[in-house]
Amino acid sequence: MDPILEARELCKSYEGFSLGKVSLTLFPGTILGVFGPNGAGKTTLIKLLSGQVPADSGEARLFQLGYDENEREIKDRMGYCPQEPPFYPDYTPVEIARFASPFYSRWEGAFFYRLLDRFRIGTHKKFRHLSTGQKTLFSLALALSHQPDLLLLDEPASGLDDANRRYLFDTLRAFVGAGEKAVLISSHVSDGLDEVAESVLFIAGGAPILAADKEELLARWKWVHFRDGALDEAAIARLTSLRRHPFGNSGLCSDFPALSDRLARAMAAGDVRVENARLSDVLVQLTQGG
Predict the structure, then answer these.
(1) Which residues constitute the domain of residue 248?
(2) Number of folded domains in the chain?
(3) Spatial separation of the C-alpha atoms in residues 106 and 79, rounded to whole Å
């Protein structure tokens, strides 16, 4: 199976910031989450992959094509949702769609209106008067309505309430459900998009720090809660982010399979309890330690 998107050692420098040597591969039927703190380089990476800015070095290929000679075809097959949608503030959603639709060969107007109805976006309300969440969902509706094969989404859950965040998650799962399309999203992790991502790329300070399958990653990273005296010093040394609580202690383990046998007896006795870590726990540990 050919990848939908490949990036090899992408680099981009601005005054005061550099994104360095980011590589990734995205196959059909998958959702990749690019997670990192503020200023990590997530938006710069999305702009490089979407052809908004040129790379200083490295290469991005979408659908086995490079931007130099195939930009129009690539953008016809790609849906891009920026963090701040740049639409005319005094246009309505319908007017914006009328302007944008001729640029796409597979535009489906009926589908666009169904999405506006599903997302509860008024068709004749000026864009400037939409809420932050509505602006995000309108950008997604516009991107989906030309039937793309790839979605690139920068902070797509920004400003969404719980109900609309659920709409977003369901929409992304349905988009890749047939196994022919793919999604790349950037996020801070805390907005819940780690729920839908199947693989992750952590970046910080303009550099990649970890790429992994999400389930494999979370099988290794666990919180270990233990009573005083339940673990020997060698086991405790394998834990980070150690915390003292009124009724015991907690620590984060980055390789639980290697420690599980050592903990088995204490777990059976009820002196140790293991809890799944979250992607945000992993990211904080990798970027800040503890």
Answers:
(1) 221-288
(2) 2
(3) 12
